[in-house]
């Protein structure tokens, strides 16, 4: 299924399990089913080929920032709403508002063969603003409690400039240990530029 959002200059396409994606009146919503997740454990286990989560992704060109406020209907541990970057089957990254395991937390995962896992800061309530940016081969993750002051979370790459320039970017929902959760995105915004300063809160 393809979906066009008026805020984005590129179409979105669904990947993975059916996320029942819907856009109406500025709100994008999706559903993660029971035990749906994307994670390749760094402890040596291989990824179960059936392990996947609903994604809605597109291919922006050049430098950009993708911004959204994410709200998660938390039910189980590690339920999350995600801004997601995909370069290859074992080269991808997640910026999450996650129930980790019982407290809403901004978390990140960068997968290069296997996944890492990092918690950044906790959030009061079930909503937070997330931002993913790209310039050249570099990606940056930021999060904000109010959509105005941004906290720098992570700077990384997933390959060379040719690979990252073809990255798919968008939205994901997950419920690794639970019976499913609804994720809603609003205040969606696209900026065709890299942030002027990663660490000054802008």
TrEMBL record:
Pfam families: DUF1349. This is Regulation of enolase 1. It comes from Streptomyces sviceus (strain ATCC 29083 / DSM 924 / JCM 4929 / NBRC 13980 / NCIMB 11184 / NRRL 5439 / UC 5370).
């Amino acid at each position: 299924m393809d979906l066009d959002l008026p805020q984005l200059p590129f179409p979105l396409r669904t990947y993975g399990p059916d996320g029942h994606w819907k856009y109406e009146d500025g709100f994008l919503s999706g559903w993660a089913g029971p035990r749906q997740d994307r994670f390749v454990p760094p402890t040596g286990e291989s990824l179960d080929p059936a392990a996947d989560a609903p994604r809605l992704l597109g291919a922006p060109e050049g430098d950009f920032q993708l911004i959204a406020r994410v709200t998660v209907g938390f039910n189980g541990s590690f339920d999350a709403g995600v801004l997601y970057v995909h370069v290859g089957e074992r080269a991808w990254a997640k910026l999450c508002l996650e129930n980790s395991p019982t407290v809403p937390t901004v978390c990140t995962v960068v997968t290069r063969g296997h996944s890492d896992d990092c918690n950044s800061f906790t959030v009061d309530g079930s909503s937070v603003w997330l931002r993913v940016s790209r310039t050249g081969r570099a990606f940056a993750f930021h999060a904000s409690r109010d959509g105005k002051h941004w906290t720098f979370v992570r700077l990384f790459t997933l390959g060379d400039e040719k690979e990252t320039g073809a990255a798919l970017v968008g939205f994901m929902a997950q419920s690794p240990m639970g019976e499913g959760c609804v994720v809603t995105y609003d205040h969606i915004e696209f900026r065709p530029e890299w942030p002027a300063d990663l660490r000054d809160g802008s």
